[in-house]
Amino acid sequence: MKNEDILGNLDQIPILYEGITIQPFDKLSYLVVNNKDGHYLKVSKLVADALLLSDGTRSLKQIHNELGESISFGELANIFSKELPKFGILESTTQDTKINPRFSHIKLKITLIPIGIVDKISRLFCILFHPAFMIFSSLAFVFLFGFLLFMNFQFINTPNTEPAYRSHWWIWIVLSFLVGLFHEFGHSSALVNFGGKPRQIGFGLYLIFPMFFSTVTDAWRFKKKERLLINLGGVYFEMLVAMLGLIYFIIFHDLSVLIFCFFYLITILYNLNPFIRSDGYWILSDMTNTPNLTQLSNENLKLLFSKSICRFKLKNYLLALYALLSKTYIAFIILALFVNNYSQIILFFPNLVNGISTLRLRGIGFTDVQKAIPVILFYLLLINFISDKSKLLGARLASK
Questions:
Q1: Residue 320 and residue 392: Cα distance in Å, rounded?
Q2: Mapping DSSP to helix (H, G, I), strand (E, B) and coil, where does residue 135 land?
Q3: Closest alpha carbon to 172 in 268, 260, 264
Q4: Between 20 and 30 A from 247 (CA), which of 37, 56, 60, 131?
Q5: Looking at residue 358, what is its pLDDT?
Q6: SS3 readout for 235-290
Q7: How does pLDDT run across 16-26, given as a tens digit for each residue?
Q8: Domains of the chain and CATH, by start
Q9: CA 151/CA 157 separation, integer angstroms
């Protein structure tokens, strides 16, 4: 930044937007929280101190004088003129970018249940987070599932199982929808249980898959243990549903219900996967005190190929390792999709052209959609993977 630009910026009088609060996160950092929409930004103590002084009565020069020699004129001007405007937290900025939305990876988002109703229902479920009940239900779930898995696993492959499952398909769709909502209430109820304020529950698309989401960004105000329980709340509620299903199976011997329970066991394991934007990702984010886990891990991976590696600490290496494992996982999924659907993938675009021309003649059926899903997912993941790799290669070339 040029000297005249620095001098001009230092006369600026920054003001925080109304509804912005700053609170401690850990020993070295703070959270800047937009209480209006629940978005947040993690900053250093120095930046937090500077923002706390941005009350409309001080210029940047006066703020710098109060901060002392811990930061230079140029660094402070750069933070207020280039870095903070990206997040739209200062009235003096014209940019409209929001602070770190937690669900930016979800597209076409719509609100299903507004804040007021979410808050009222969540308060009813708070009793499920009593420590004694949580311990009892968790042990009961493990015992029941282990026992039934050992005693009845052979029933899954009996000839009568598939017809029973298919005859109730519409019930499973409705139940899956309700359990999906119940999962999200697990997060919001845990948040309310600790004194937080839940926001709306919504619906959107992650890549090409429909999914629910609950906005619980207020969780960042709490300690690590409480944040972990909030993120585990959805899986915990799914476990309760599966446990009720197991009890139903024991009483009525409905094998389709047992399959439903096994399906949700797989769903629980899927949600705990740390390499996709699901509960496991946010749990790992909380365990490492890293709100922007994907962004920071990718940045550290890029730095491995730059001259900045000499400044790396253990956490930097672990973040880079996470980014590498995450990309390896995505590469494996891409490879698996190709191996199992290579003919449809290779002929996708010619078939797409032919399909569009014949669509009016025969319409589109469930089988067509079923075949198209893995192919579309393959190309979406491949495009994202190549994009990330090109950025990594660019960082490597820039370091030479």
A1: 12
A2: helix
A3: 260
A4: 131
A5: 54
A6: HHHHHHHHHHHHHHHHHHCCHHHHHHHHHHHHHHHHHCCCCCCCHHHHHHHHHCCC
A7: 877 788 888 77
A8: 3-87 (3.90.930.60), 107-287 (no CATH), 293-398 (no CATH)
A9: 13
